[in-house]
Amino acid sequence: MTLVGRTAAIGTLDQALADCVAGRPRTVLVEGPTGCGKSALLHALLELASAGEALALCAAGSPAERGTPYGVLRQLAGSARGLALDGTDRVCGTPPRAETMQALCAELRELSERTPLVLCVDDVQYADDESLAFLQYLARSVRAGRLLLVVTDSLHHEAGDPAFTTELMRQPAFRRIRLDRLSRADTRALAEGRGRGGGARALHEISGGNPLLLRALLDEAGGAGGDEIAPVPGGSFAQAVRACLHRTGPTAAAVAQAVALLRTADSAEEAAELLELSPAAVRQGLSALAAAGLVDGVRLRHPAVRDAVLSGLATADLIALHRRAALLLRRWGRPATEAAGHLQAAAAHRHTRWTASAAETELLCEAAEARLAADDGRPALRLLELAHQVCEDDRQRNVIEARLAQITWRFDPAAAERRLAGPLAALRSGLLDGEPAQPLSQLLLMQSRLTEAAELLGDRDEEDDEQGVSPLDLVIDTGATTAERLLRSATLTEATLTAVVQAVRSLLLCDQPERAVPWSRTLLEDAERRGAPGWAAVFATLHAQALLRIGDLAGASSFAGRALEALPEGGGGTFRYAALAVLVGAHSAMGHYTEASRQCDRPLPHGLLDSLHGLAFLRARGLHHLTGNQPQAALTDFMAIGRIMQSRGIDRPAFLPWRSDAAQALQRLGKPQQAERLVLQQLALPDARRPWVRGLSLHRRALSVGSSRQRISLLEQAVDELHRSGDRLATAQAMADLGQTMQADGNAPMKGTATTRAAWSLARQCGATALCKEILPDAPLSDPAPERIVEPGPERPETRLSSSEQRVATLAAQGLTNREISTKLYLTVSTVEQHLTKVYRKLRINGRADLPIDLALGAVQAGK
Question: For 395-406, how does the pLDDT look when each residue is reduced to its tens digit (9 = 90+)?
Fold first, then answer.
């Protein structure tokens, strides 16, 4: 309907009034959707009637009064003095007597002879049956007189009486006016009149051309500049929407609520099932809503309309509707995440508590798993937290909390640790069956609470106990090839996290710890990319541990700090101490004593030493005490580690070589015999076959023997084993002691000097400032030409040393002069000089002082 059409409607009423004044009775029906101006048109007629001195009798139907007999008729009679309604006090449902209606019509005709009479009934769809019967009789019986009957009716209204409209249409004096929503052009014209022409398109899209809604939007916008139209929650627009719903009837209002709730309803049948109505009733309601411009198809026109519709529902009714919608959507085959969204919406009303059914709890858990499958960890967490909150079955709550702990590890290991207490207690007390044992044991393994994990699974029989098998044994004894095979095939998820971490730890503890470096870095990047800070902290810590093991102190410090930054402030639980252990070890070796001491001074939280993370921190603190010349404090820490590991059946020096650590402290305290006993015990263990454990043990044993020759022999073996183990810092320490022993022995001072210099260079390359100062206190640490390590790998032909060049370079790195080399290799001095010139050019170094460390190290190994 255009503005021109509305003007024509007023013209039609004006003509009907003129006919009435001329003695030609008329009946006019004004139809249209809710909010489209029917009442406004009626008011315009009343103004015309008043201007023409006609008498207007007015009434309005109301849902609340529809069951009151003669309610509308009494309103009409009350508008005129002296108009009687004899017999209108009958019981509702009893048709009025013909003589009563005849008498009343006669009164109206008599009244119209004195003055033109206009009868106006607004919202006739709500009129009582008795009044409707009279209005029909009046329209049929009045053939002459100055009388105009005008009624308004809402289209598609559930309360409408089709028979009444049909009866009016049969009369020869009947006129019909149809109102509709405003067109886009009309909306623009009205908007421009209010200074909002720039927002005309948005105004029409939001209001649907409904005049009531449009006026409310314009009232909200007021005189504000700009073209943006944004309805205010609870404002005039929302109130207008609720008014429209009220006037379209309870069924249409309920349909609007269902559509608002479902959002993606594809048919009237879905809304019908949700509301427990017939599809026909829902379709009629949708037609009324569509005519009023509130819906477009089966969807509400605008989010502001949706918000206004739902805000009109009582909280308890809204929650009930959401809960019903959730289960229905799942039954209809909708995704679990979509269905569970309704349960989350119901739970958003925190002041109204409700308990979930078993089906609702299952739906929330299913939706959480779907989120996890899509790698949406935080939404999954929220779904499970809601399931845990509304579930009242104790067993199911503990199962959910165990799963919550798994997922929480993605973001906060400390929070995951706290969630373990309830399910663990329930499992141990028999209130929970063994189903959650596996995920709980995996979380315990992630915290390195190995003994508890093994007990929980009950996977250790008496024979295993005798052999000392533990989860730590499985980590240490898994070969690098097996670990890498698992890492290549596994995708990082909650289910595989523990296995992946254990595989990286296996690489870290194998004879080639450098193999853990690329894997831990790749997994760290994967965790960061997926927004999982808890996982990122795990793999940053593993990467830091791997770098510390191969002697990259700066890298270890950096990634340990990165792990701590990934954890929530103050969070991390016992796992935080794994990163702190790396930080203490790296800072102490780099000479950052203040920072290392600051970390060591932390009070140990209760239960920390139940975890291997805590024992690793205790070892790092002990080694720092040694650096700070506090051997007794260090010995206390190392012996505490030993007591705990032995009592729990996890005494594996491949993980924590506490005996050689304690031997070092005892040597500092002047107790070499006790130190040697501990070292010999360690050498007698199966782990002593591993290069790292054997190298550390031989190093300590060498410093406990009195014979210079035996000490040199043991130290040479220690250097060889430690070099094979990949621990460059421990290798440098053993080389330093070997070089000093050789120098003191006097038989090979030149070789001792070269070994000492190689040890210093290797320590400097590791960034071990403290060890460098211990080896060569006066050597500058700011040498602009750092030592280079010749790494294995494919070489270009022009950079590969020949065998002769290799032998000459090795002896030169050992410290021999050109003449000594010529004598030893039976070459001329000139030939030696030529070989060295080629070596310098191929290695791109300036001279013999820059010869790579591996050449000097090779000389040490070759001289055994």
Answer: 889 889 989 988
